[in-house]
Amino acid sequence: MEDKTFELLTKLYSEFTDFRKEVNDKLDQKADKSDIARIEQEHGSKLEAALDGYKQAYEKLEIIENKVDILSDKVDRHDIKIQVIEGGRK
Predict the structure, then answer these.
(1) Largest alpha-carbon pair distance within the chain?
(2) How far is the C-alpha of 88 from the C-alpha of 43, rounded, in Å?
(3) pTM of the predicted model, to two decimals?
(4) Cα separation, 49 vs 41, whole angstroms
(5) How far apart are CA 65 and CA 60, in angstroms?
(6) How many whole angstroms separate alpha carbon 2 and alpha carbon 15?
(7) pLDDT tens digits, one per residue of 7-42
(8) What is the CA radius of gyration of the chain?
């Protein structure tokens, strides 16, 4: 009796394992296609947004660099003027 029960349990376990594998394979195939499409769409829009943000930051950085250059030139001119004024006092 124990041998038959063991054989039956072994057979049921084997069939259940095969069934489970088939179900998982089918779910993986369906999930793969829809997940890939979803991931491509989500990541595509996120990547586009990130690149947009990078472009805006770069443009803003260029504006700031130009302003710093202008201010630096002004400071240099003022330094020269101050040296001339102080040189005339000595």
Answers:
(1) 120
(2) 66
(3) 0.47
(4) 12
(5) 9
(6) 20
(7) 888 888 888 888 888 887 777 776 667 777 777 787
(8) 37
Amino acid at the residue 50:
A
Q: Which amino acid is at 31?
A: A
Q: What is the DSSP string of the chain?
A: -HHHHHHHHHHHHHHHHHHHHHHHHHHHHHHHHHHHHHHHHHHHHHHHHHHHHHHHHHHHHHHHHHHHHHHHHHHHHHHHHHHHHHHHH-
The structure tokens listed for 49 are 């947004």
Residue 56's CB is within 10 A of a number of other CB atoms, namely: 10
Backbone angles phi, psi at 68, to 5 degrees: -65, -40
Return the amino acid letter for 15.
E
What's the length of the chain?
A: 90
